[in-house]
Amino acid sequence: MRGLLLAAAMLGTVSAAHAADMPDLPILRGSVTDGLSRTSHNWDGFYVGGTAGYTADATDFGQSVVGLTNYIFRDSVLQGPTSTWSLLQKANTQGVNYGGFIGRNWQWYDAILSLEGTYSYFGNLSTGSTGSNALVIVNPAGEVRPAGITHNYAVSLTGTATAQVKDMITLRGRAGWDGGPFMPYAFFGAAVGRMDITRTVTSDVRLRTDVTTTDIFGNQNTTIGTTWVPVPSQSGTQGQHRTNTFAVGWTAGLGLEYCIWDGLFARIEYEYVRFSPVMNTSVTLNNARLGVGYKF
């Protein structure tokens, strides 16, 4: 028994001496690398900054005055035919934008997720369209007429509409990639814009009545009416104006940030914004921006 204990003690002494002679491996000092991660910059944290850029505005006025014509021709057989008229056209304009942003980055190795709020002010971003249309509507559907009577409605419409986008706020989610001093990213979110919108339409309706008779031999003879009689109940002007009305929409785009020094970074991005129609007027924005920010 004494022999076994003596042998075990000698082996323990030899093992300890051998371990002391082993080189100081890096793994023993806790300097293991982060696996496959290539992270070389810390983008995590809160950030804030300002932007300036260029905006292209595309506004569709095609259905802008339909609500007004529907009101003029309410309870009338002319409402259906005139509701399909595209009285106005699309219009485009350009302007500058200024704004700011604030957000928070969360970084996992090379992946970066962000939640960001932005504000944009647009300088003189106003569009407008004017148009007219005239058509003779014969015996509109739903009208009750005596036998042999033909009603010819000469309908003339003239309209105008304008839209000015004043400013906008967005709440965006971003997904980026740590490329060292560079961070490319994509974003998607909600947008709310503040606008001034006006629309006006004038209608003039005149009626001509033609009479068709049949003689004893079955021959038909049509007498064309000699006058166009005004229809005051369906003629007139309607207008509507909204100031500082809000339009909701969505936004999406791409961008690139570059770390200039420490927490200071520069940004370039493209943003697409589409608002829901307000008074049947649809606004779409394409924004290009340059910005500077600081990450805390």
UniProtKB/TrEMBL annotation:
Residues 7-296 form the Outer membrane protein beta-barrel domain. One of its GO terms (cellular component) is cell outer membrane. Keywords: Cell outer membrane, Membrane, Signal. Residues 1-19 form the signal peptide. InterPro entries: Beta-barrel_OMP (IPR027385), OMP-like (IPR051692), OMP/PagP_B-barrel (IPR011250). It comes from the Bacteria. Pfam families: OMP_b-brl (PF13505). It is found in: Cell outer membrane. PANTHER family: BLL7405 PROTEIN. Belongs to the Omp25/RopB family. This is Porin family protein. It comes from Bradyrhizobium arachidis.
